[in-house]
């Protein structure tokens, strides 16, 4: 395969060939599902159905109309959409009591001048009288984004920093307060407000997570830690990603996602592999029942340019077929010398109502990421004599020919059917084709002398094609037992992941001089090694599991969640060198039982206490100095705390304490290497991590959104010695925006504060320490017209110099920078 600069901008041949049948499948679905009822018939039938629907217990206090309609959508299960700018300044009437949804809507809208129209059984459209040019009274649609019945946690259009419900912890649709684990949601509104386009940036803003960035986008030099351990569990729409290298979504662009849900602690019930740190679930954007869209342009520091479009709505008159199409292109330099990055994103999805109770979804997602003159590491923190170095923040340790490329194509589909009395079954299928190619040449080899000598580059190349096929089926709904109503979820899932590719020389090359004559004056110029394939290798991973969970309600105030997963895991590796004998290894874990238990007790209508337990099981790929793979990570995770839900879920708060116990934790074995030249690890026994987290997300008062909190985690070995000292024990993060009232209602102001405690590392017997530091960001957005807004993000306004990695080599965090965004919506 050629480098990205030679391959052009299109799909690689292997990906293009697989994209054709997926595209044909989408086109066939579009043609086959265009029939339906005339719109007038649907509107009439829907209005009658809403008026005759069963009575619902509503409890919605007087508040801004947009927030009240969001609560109405959550409590009724109906889809309500809204452009919040149109409803600015309107306040709802209080609503409490049992009534039909039509009565509830009339009460909420009393005195607002708005009217409503039901388009189908699950979709409400509000309309606002307006005067035309000849003075005639017309009705224009007002859209207030609430919860879709197909996605009760939808965040887009709500303007909120929290969501109504999440299933990322147990696959039961529970509110944040009802979930007995710590959950953080980076909603669409918050992602847009902070200008967060990349996964790493979104995770870095989440409470309890720490980004260790030590390389350019697309390298494997970046890791995220939670509760003292590396985060490696990623899901998309609840479908787990393989642990095989290249399958996680840590570099994903966020243009195609509605939100990012983060569950801290082990989630083995759904992942099969219980990672003790956290799991990340990316939830894709869905088509909307109304036509909507936006186009956005961004320009920022270091020649950052980005364009993004998003178009969604019904594709046929009766609304039974809906589609959404998202594209994004980004090209940017960096504060790091010579580093250039670009990426392309395309996403298309269709939803079809096969019947009133059956929903079919199909889609394609494509992302390509390039980083040129890119380093996998930073720069030496210490001289050979143990004293600190003093490099500028623009230093780049990459050779001029080094690059990293990721090319990902995913086809997905789901079929959901709703039975009577709240039961539903959902089938999810996904196939992902990926390719990565990295030409390595980064100058962190050796020990730096004060005259600039002693350093060299680590050369090499890795390149592989990957494919993962995943399938899952879930059945959930309520049931009656002993006169009480409870909930049940049962399911089965599995995936098959396959990586194959040619092997190239790494690290130590014959007849090649990696030396850098003078590190202080080096500009990346060094001979490119001739890297010819030395053979090929492949790796396969299979995981299957069945799982179940029930939420028992012994009393109105008490919930008990019990669940378990029975998992089977296999991994097989084969290597076929051009010279020498082939080799194969196989590992398997059968009948692994992962239990889960949680309890939530409501102290009042607002406050709850909770506790949860789950076991930890995680196969590992690290090797010891003898070349043997470490045994799976095993242990237990405990969590307890207090949660509060204010203003009917518009504001969530929590306090959690946790304890994690583990055996076989992979810890770097200093100075030791495996036979293949990689870093050797040892299995540490009796490790623990203890800490606490305080968090608040949502609306403090009308127009005032807040998200953030404080976290502390201290991982230790069996002797009480602190582990991962390069990660701070304590951190505080807080982002908030406020939309001004009255004549200034078109202006929204915001600020972000991140404080991180001190950290240190031991490097060749010497200690390197970074003191605590604080980063401050500012944000302004102005509504130029009803449909056009401009936003300015000023980051690190005090130009704080800080390191994002100090484990072995240093890597600077971003200096002061700015980004201007212009968005037009319709």
UniProtKB/TrEMBL annotation:
Residues 155-166 have a biased composition (Low complexity). Residues 145-154 have a biased composition (Basic and acidic residues). GO terms for molecular function: siderophore uptake transmembrane transporter activity; signaling receptor activity. PROSITE patterns: TONB_DEPENDENT_REC_3 (PS52016). One of its GO terms (biological process) is siderophore transport. Transmembrane segments: none annotated. GO terms for cellular component: cell outer membrane. It is a multi-pass membrane protein. SUPFAM superfamilies: Porins. Its main location: membrane. Residues 130-166 are annotated as: Disordered. Keywords: Cell outer membrane, Ion transport, Iron, Iron transport, Membrane, Receptor, Signal, TonB box, Transmembrane, Transmembrane beta strand, Transport. Residues 78-129 form the Secretin/TonB short N-terminal domain. It is found in: Cell outer membrane. Gene3D superfamilies: 3.55.50.30, TonB-dependent receptor, beta-barrel domain, TonB-dependent receptor, plug domain. The keyword Nucleotidyltransferase does not apply. NCBIfam families: TonB-siderophor. Belongs to the TonB-dependent receptor family. This is TonB-dependent siderophore receptor.
């Amino acid at each position: 395969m050629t480098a990205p600069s030679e391959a052009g901008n299109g799909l690689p041949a292997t990906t293009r060939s697989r994209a054709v049948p997926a595209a044909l499948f989408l086109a066939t679905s579009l043609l086959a599902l265009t029939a339906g009822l005339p719109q007038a018939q649907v509107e009439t039938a829907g209005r009658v159905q809403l008026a005759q629907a069963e009575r619902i217990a509503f409890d919605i206090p007087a508040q801004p109309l947009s927030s009240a309609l969001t609560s109405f959508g959550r409590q009724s299960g109906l889809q309500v959409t809204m452009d919040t700018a149109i409803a600015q300044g309107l306040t709802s009437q209080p609503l409490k009591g049992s009534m039909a949804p039509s009565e509830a809507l009339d009460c909420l809208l009393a005195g607002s001048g708005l009217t409503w129209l039901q388009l189908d059984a699950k979709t409400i459209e509000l309309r606002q009288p307006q005067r035309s040019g000849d003075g005639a009274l017309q009705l224009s649609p007002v859209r207030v984004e609430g919860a879709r019945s197909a996605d009760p946690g939808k965040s887009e259009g709500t303007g909120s920093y929290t969501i109504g419900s999440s299933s990322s912890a147990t696959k039961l649709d529970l509110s944040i307060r009802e979930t007995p684990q710590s959950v953080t949601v980076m909603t669409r509104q918050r992602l847009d407000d902070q200008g967060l386009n990349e996964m790493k940036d979104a995770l870095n803003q989440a409470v309890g997570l720490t980004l260790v960035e030590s390389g350019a986008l697309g390298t494997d030099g970046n890791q995220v830690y939670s509760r003292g351990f590396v985060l490696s569990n990623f899901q998309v729409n609840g479908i787990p990603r393989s642990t095989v290298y290249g399958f996680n979504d840590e570099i994903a662009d966020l243009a195609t996602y509605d939100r990012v849900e983060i569950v801290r602690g082990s989630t083995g019930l759904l992942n099969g592999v219980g990672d003790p740190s956290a799991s990340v679930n990316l939830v894709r954007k869905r088509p909307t029942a109304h036509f909507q869209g936006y186009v956005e342009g961004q320009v920022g520091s270091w020649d950052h340019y980005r364009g993004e479009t998003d178009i969604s709505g019904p594709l046929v008159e009766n609304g039974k077929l809906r589609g959404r199409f998202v594209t994004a292109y980004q090209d940017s330099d960096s504060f790091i010398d010579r580093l250039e990055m670009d990426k392309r994103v395309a996403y298309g999805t269709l939803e079809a109502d096969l019947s009133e109770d059956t929903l079919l979804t199909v889609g394609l997602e494509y992302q390509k990421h390039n980083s040129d003159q890119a380093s996998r590491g930073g720069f030496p923190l210490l001289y050979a004599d143990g004293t600190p170095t003093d490099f500028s923040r623009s230093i780049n340790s990459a050779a001029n020919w080094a690059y990293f490329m990721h090319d990902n194509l995913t086809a997905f589909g789901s079929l959901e059917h709703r039975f009577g009395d709240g039961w539903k079954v959902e089938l999810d299928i996904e196939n992902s084709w990926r390719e990565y190619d990295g030409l390595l040449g980064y100058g962190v080899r050796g020990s730096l002398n004060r005259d600039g000598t002693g350093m060299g580059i680590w050369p090499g190349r890795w390149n592989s094609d990957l494919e993962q096929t995943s399938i899952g089926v879930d059945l959930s709904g309520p049931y009656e037992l002993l006169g009480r109503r409870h909930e049940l979820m049962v399911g089965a899932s599995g995936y098959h992941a396959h990586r194959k590719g040619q092997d190239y020389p790494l690290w130590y090359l014959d007849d090649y001089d990696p030396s850098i004559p003078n590190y202080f004056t080096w500009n990346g110029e060094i001979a490119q090694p001739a890297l010819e394939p030395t053979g090929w290798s492949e790796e396969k991973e299979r995981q299957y599991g069945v799982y179940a969970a029930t939420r028992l309600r012994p009393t109105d105030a008490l919930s008990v969640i019990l669940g378990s997963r029975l998992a089977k895991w296999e991994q097989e590796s084969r290597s076929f060198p051009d010279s020498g004998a082939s080799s194969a290894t196989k590992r398997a874990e059968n009948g692994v039982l992962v239990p889960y238990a949680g309890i939530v007790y409501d102290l009042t209508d607002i406050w709850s206490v909770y506790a949860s337990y789950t076991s930890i099981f995680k196969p590992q790929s690290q090797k010891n100095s003898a070349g043997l793979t470490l045994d799976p990570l095993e242990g237990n995770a405990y969590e307890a705390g207090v949660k509060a839900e204010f203003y009917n879920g518009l504001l969530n708060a929590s306090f959690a304490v946790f304890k994690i116990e583990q055996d076989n934790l992979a810890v770097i074995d200093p100075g030791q290497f495996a036979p293949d030249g990689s870093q050797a690890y040892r299995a540490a026994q009796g490790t623990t991590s203890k800490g606490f987290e305080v968090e608040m997300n949502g609306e403090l008062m009308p127009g005032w959104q807040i998200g953030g909190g404080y976290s502390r985690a201290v991982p230790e070995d069996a002797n009480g010695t602190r582990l991962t000292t390069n990660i701070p024990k304590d951190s505080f993060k807080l982002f908030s925006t406020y939309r001004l009232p009255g004549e200034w209602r078109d202006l929204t102001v915001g600020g972000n504060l991140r404080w991180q405690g001190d950290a240190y590392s031991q490097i060749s017997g010497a200690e390197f320490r970074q003191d605590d530091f604080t980063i401050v960001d500012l944000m302004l957005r102005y509504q130029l017209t009803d449909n056009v807004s401009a936003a300015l993000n000023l980051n690190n306004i005090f130009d704080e110099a800080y390191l994002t990695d100090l484990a072995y080599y240093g890597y600077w965090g971003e200096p002061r920078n700015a980004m201007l965004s212009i968005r037009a919506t319709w």
